[in-house]
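Worked example 2:
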Amino acid sequence: MNPVRVLVVDDQALFRRVMSAVVDETEGFLLVGCAASGEESIVAVRALRPDLILMDVNLPDFDGMEATRRLRQDTTAAVVLLSTYDEDDWDGQAQECGALAYVAKSAFGPDRLTEVWAMTAD
């Protein structure tokens, strides 16, 4: 079975490294690239064709929700929004912009990555 191709989008290098490490450590997932802004995410998705995009909510130029809206027009990749906000406050907003789910960065790890990817089968 082919690994799930993942793009990490976050404007903070530390969080890009952390999310990338989680992807690298999770069996069945392959990091294909990183981006640091909403605009970079659009370019990266077109070039890298990921299956899953881990998208920070707060990005320079336009936020992760707007990037998700724009990406929904060009890709079938699943988008998971991440930020420091409580999950109960954001899950509905994530779905409104076309994201698969919202995950608080503090809760993100291999189990959660696998869990949100399993949602694509529903």
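The domain at 4-121 is CATH 3.40.50.2300 (Rossmann fold). The chain has a mean pLDDT of 90.
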